[in-house]
Amino acid sequence: MAHRHRADITERERGGTGSESRGIEREHGDGEVSATTRAAVPAPVPAPAGRSIASRYRRDPEALLRRLRRIEGQVRGVQRMVEEDRYCVDILVQLAAIRAALDEVGLVILADHTRGCVTDAIRSGDGEAVIEELLGAVRRLVR
Questions:
Q1: Is a pLDDT exceeding 90 seen at residue 122?
Q2: pTM of the model as a whole
Q3: Three-state SS string across 37-86, please?
Q4: 56: closest CA among 41, 75, 73?
Q5: What is the mean pLDDT of residues 60-80?
């Protein structure tokens, strides 16, 4: 696969407005293309005194599944970009957007685990083992 420069890529090859509707790329007025994803994680909701909070993704698993389906669509978009021999830097930008979106999903699940499982274990006296498990999960997540 030959490397191509942005100047060699036509508007059609860059995806134009079709890729914008998929949320994969956004073209700015100056001709630059950038990723549009970096989903915000909702602010934590404090639990009432003495009560644990229901998990966000367990309360609304469809929201998490929608995020994962969106990421799956982004991955398919990158596959098409490779098949179409798109500009390497554009592919790298999309890969960074996918990684950021996956990180956000991981943070939602991590927050849910901390507020639910870890909090319950600490209250029941099993906190030490669960905290160690949590730290291991955080280490894996941030690698």
A1: yes
A2: 0.60
A3: CCCCCCCCCCCCCCCCCCCHHHHCHHHHHHHHHHHHHHHHHHHHHHHCCC
A4: 41
A5: 95
Given phi > 0 = left and psi -120 to 50 = alpha, else beta, which region is 9?
beta
Instruction: Tell me if residue 117 falls in helix, strand or coil.
Output: helix
Distance CA 98, CA 95 (A): 5
Q: Given 3-state DSSP classes, what are the helix, strand and coil percentages for the chain, each rounded to the nearest 5?
A: 65, 5, 30
Q: What is the CA radius of gyration of the chain?
A: 20
6-142: which CATH topology? Methane Monooxygenase Hydroxylase; Chain G, domain 1 (1.20.58)
Distance CA 37, CA 102 (A): 11
